[in-house]
Amino acid sequence: xxxxxxxxxxxxxxxxxxxxxxxxxxxxxxLASGETLAIVGESGSGKSxxxxxxxxxxxxxxxxxxxxxxxxxxxxGTAFDVTGSKEAALRQIRGRDVGMIFQEPMTSLxxxxxxxxxxxxxxxxxxxxxxxxxxxxxxxxxxRVRIPDAKSRMDYYPHQLSGGMRQRVMIAMALVASxxxxxxxxxxxxxxxxxxxxxxxxxxxxxxxxxxxxxxxxHDIGLVxxxxxxxxVMQHGVVVEQDETSNVLDNPQHEYTQHLLRAVPxxxxxxxxxxxxxxxxxxxxxxxxxxLVVRFPVGGxxxxxxxxxxxxxxxxxxLVAGETLAIVGESGSGKSxxARAILGLVDKQRGDIAATTGRSKRxxxxxxxxxxxSLNPRLxxxxxxxxxxxxxxxxxxxxxxxxxAFLLDKVGLPEDALKRYPHQFSGGQRQRLCIARALMxxxxxxxxxxxxxxxxxxxxxxVLDLLIDLQHEFRLAYLFISHDMAVVERxxxxxxxxxxGQIVEIGDAKAVLASPQHSYTKRLIAAVPAIERRKQHFAxxxxxxxxxxxxxxxxPPDARWREAGSDHRVRHEDTP
Length: 576
Hints:
It contains 19 helices and 22 strands. It is of the alpha/beta class. It has a domain at 1-97 and 180-264: 3-Layer(aba) Sandwich (Rossmann fold). α7 (163-175) packs parallel to α8 (193-210), α13 packs parallel to α15 (427-438) and α14 (398-410) crosses α15. It starts with a strand and ends in a 5-residue tail after the last strand. Residues 7-261, 287-525 form the ABC transporter domain.
C-alpha cells in the first residue's frame, strides 16, 4: 500500500505562547491508502487536536503548529506540505483530499436549510456542478450512505431526521468530493447502539468501495476493535503505544493502554448483572407509573391539529427503594420523554404517576447528560447546591452548608469545592457535582438521563461505582436511561426496553439481557460492539422505526403481553 500521510514530531500549542502551552507533544505516525487508524485516548489527550491539525482546522480554534511536519500525498503523486502551506492552498485539500465528520451533526448542519440544499452546496464548492446537476449528485451520495427514500428526504430539515440519519447526512457531505482520507472525530458517541453499529458498518463498506483511508477518533477503545487496522493510544499529548489492532488489544504494553482496556465496560450478555438486590413484590413502590401517554400535536395549528406524535403510548412500570430500573432504546423511542413526564417537565395526556413522599416534598430528582450545560457557569458550587433547597423553602444557613459539605464528601469532592466554579472541574467532577446537587433534597428516586454517556470510560467506571455506593447508603431508587448496554448490565437490577413509544420487554436484568424475547431487544443486544466481537460483521440495515405520527383521534389497541419468566414480560409483536 502506498503511503498517503506522514506525520513527524507534530507539536501543537494554544494561546499567545503556544510553545509553552503545547497539547500535542511530538506525535509521529504514517497512514497508507485504504488503511484505518484509530486514535484512542481520554479527554485532553490531544487526539482531536492531532486530527484537526492534518488539514489545519486547528488554526481556527486558536491552535498553532509549533513544530514537526505533516506531508500528504495527493492523487497525482505530489507531496503536499500541510504545515508550511498558506490558507488558499489548504482550501484545495479540505474536502477534496481530506474529508471530516464531527461528533455532533446537529451543530454541524444548518437548521434553516434542507439537507438536500446543504449537500448540493458542498457539491458545488467541491466539483463546480450547478443547479440540477448538483442536486442529482447530492441525491446520489444520499443513496450511497443508505438513506431510505432519499429523494423525499432531500427536502427534510435536520431536526426532522434521527441522530443516526443526521450522521449519515454528515458522512454524505464528507463524501461528495470523494476524499482519499476521511477523519471521523467521535462520530458515534451520541448514537444508540444499533445506530452506532450501522454507522460503523457503513464506514467499513464505504472504505471497501472507495479505497479511502480513515482516521477514527474515539475515547472507547472497544468500539474500534472491529474496524481499525492499527491503534494509536494517546495520553497527555504523547503517543504511548502504537501497533496493529490485535497486538494492542490482546497484548497491551503500556500501563495506560492496560488501564483503558480494564475500564471499558464489557458486555457479558446478562452474565455480569448486579446480584446485590432482590426484588420483593410486596414492597411498596416509591414510583408507580400506569398507562402513561404523552403526545405532541402536529399540523393544522395548536387549536385544531391534524394529528399527534405518540411519543409515549401506554407505558407502565414501578420502582422500589434500592432498585435500579434501566430504560433502553433508540433515540426517539420515548425513554427521555417518559422520564421528563414523571418529573412534570412535559405534560402528559393521561396516565397515573404516583410517587411516595417519605423523605422529601420533592421525592424525584434528575441528573442530566451534560453536566456543564446543567450548571450555571456564573454561580459557584455553594450557590448551585443551595438552589434546590432554597426553592423548596429552606434557609441558606449553617445546617444547609453542613449538608453540602456532607454530600460533597460522599461524591469524593473536597469541601473547598464550594467556592469554585463549574469550569474549574473536569467532566467527571462536574457530573459528581450534579449528583450531589440532586441529593440535596434527600430524594427517594434519582432519574439519570444518559448521565455517564459523555464521560471517558475510566471516569464513567468511577461514577458508576459512586452511584452504586450512594444507592446502598441512602436506599435510593434509580431510573437509569441509557443506550449503552454494557453500562446497563453493570448498574441495572431490572431493564425495560422501549421501541416506538412503547415498552416491548421488561423484567429482571439477567433475564432480559441473557434471554431476550422481543425481536427489537435481540437486535439491540446483537449490535453491542465489544473487543470480544472484533470479528463480527455488521451488515448495513435500513429498517425504519415505524412513524409515531398518528391522525387526530387515533387510539392504539390494547397491548397484549406474555410471561417469559417470574419477572419477565414481553409484548406481542403483532400489537401496533
